Amino acid sequence: MHPLRARVLRSVRRGHSSATDIARALEAPRSSVNEQLRHLSKAGLIYVSEVKNKRGAVQRFYRVHSDSDYFSESELEKIDVQGRKRIDAGIVRMFLTAMAAAMQSENHASPSSVFWSITRLVDEEAWQQLRTLHRETALQANQLIHEAEERLDRESGSEARVISSSVFLFELPKEE
């Protein structure tokens, strides 16, 4: 990944949302930031969350897709069923987009990639243990990613990889 592109992505994740804000925060030319924003948007890593007209110019505000967002149990309880379905559908869409891009790239089937899926019957005790294990795994992965982003910020010459880390556990509908 282009070094500036990685810095722009981290900047958007931290809340700098317009090209002007990002360019100022990174002390980089706005034209270069705009170019990197186009690449990140095309790759599906960010999206335009708002468009404003400011002094006759169009200003776009960007957000990172919520692939790294985590909802606690108490936060999920506050969201109605339809809202949870929309969130889940968005996560699955992002996963499938990322997976399709990976499969089309030269990195597909790399020995460092990990793919695993299993469908089994479990009892209530195993279900609860698996929910806890998956939640803890997701939180640990998120923590590692944040630590890596901090290292990348400190070490400007470090090589950055764009990754997708996904943890899925769900109950399948019962067959009739």
Walk me through this protein's architecture.
- This protein is mainly alpha-helical.
- 52% of the residues lie in helices and 10% in strands.
- It has 2 domains: 3-64, Arc Repressor Mutant, subunit A (Orthogonal Bundle), CATH 1.10.10; 66-154, no CATH class.
- The protein has a two-stranded antiparallel ribbon with strand order 1-2.
- Strand 1 (46-54) and strand 2 (57-64) form a beta hairpin.
- The longest helix is centred in the last third of the chain and has 31 residues, at 124-154.
- The protein is globular, with a radius of gyration of 19 Å.
Return Rg in Å: 19 Å
Oligomer: single chain
User: What's the total count of β strands?
Assistant: 2
| Main beta-sheet annotation | 2 strands, antiparallel
Number of helical stretches of at least 4 residues? 6
Query: Segments where pLDDT lies below 50 for 5+ residues?
Result: none
